[in-house]
């Protein structure tokens, strides 16, 4: 099983950051929440911070864990550990691994072709936003 951490970064209008996988990689062309593999000896949070710095030149503030997802792909099983963060202003993003990024509202999310493991995370995010729980649980960090 491969353990992967990912980030749901919400801006002040509750749009979130999505990244597109390069066509030559597994799940090529699909959209996902940014992140990457947890290496031996790393915590999921430390792995996420490292991957965000390496792949997006992004540093984030406090992280709030969401519900992990286990998904069986034809190439193996992924355990995806999502973390939520908020930002007042959208940070500058420099892509080193992904083909594209965009800020997406929940209403726009179904227009993208998502990696299957990310779909339950989208559903949880929708539920949290509808319950208006995010404002009290995850304060924004200034940029």
Compute the number of strand runs.
8
**How is the main sheet built?**
5 strands, mixed
Order of helices and strands: EEEEHEEEEHH
| Structural class by sheet pairing and helices | alpha+beta
Number of helices: 3
Oligomer: single chain
β-sheet strand percentage:
25-35%
Under CATH at level 1, the class stands as Alpha Beta
Integer average pLDDT:
90
- Give the tally of structural domains: 1
What's the CATH topology label?
A: Nucleoside Triphosphate Pyrophosphohydrolase
Short overview:
The chain has 143 residues and is α+β, with helices and mostly antiparallel strands. Helix content is 21%, strand content 29%.
Features:
143 residues, alpha+beta, Nucleoside Triphosphate Pyrophosphohydrolase, five-stranded mixed sheet, three-stranded antiparallel sheet, 3 helices, 8 strands, globular
Task: Give a description of the structure.
This protein has one domain (2-137): Nucleoside Triphosphate Pyrophosphohydrolase (Alpha-Beta Complex). By secondary structure, it is of the alpha+beta class. Helices cover 21% and strands 29% of the residues. Strands 1, 4, 5, 6 and 7 form a 5-stranded mixed β-sheet that branches. A 3-stranded antiparallel β-sheet has the order 3-2-8, with no helix packed on it. The model has no long low-confidence stretch (mean pLDDT 90). The chain is globular. It has 3 helices and 8 strands.
């Amino acid at each position: 099983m491969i353990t992967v951490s990912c980030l749901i970064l919400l801006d002040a209008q509750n749009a979130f950051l999505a990244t597109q996988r390069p066509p030559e990689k597994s799940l090529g062309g699909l959209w996902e929440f940014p992140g990457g593999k947890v290496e031996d000896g790393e915590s999921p949070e430390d792995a996420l911070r490292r991957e965000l710095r390496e792949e997006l030149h992004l540093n984030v503030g406090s992280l709030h864990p969401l519900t992990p997802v286990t998904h069986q792909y034809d190439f193996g099983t992924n355990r995806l550990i999502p973390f939520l963060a908020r930002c007042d202003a959208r940070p500058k993003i420099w892509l080193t691994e992904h083909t594209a990024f965009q800020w997406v509202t929940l209403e726009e999310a179904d227009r993208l072709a998502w990696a299957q493991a990310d779909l339950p995370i989208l559903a949880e995010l929708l539920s949290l936003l509808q319950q208006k729980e995010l404002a009290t649980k995850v304060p924004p960090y200034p940029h």
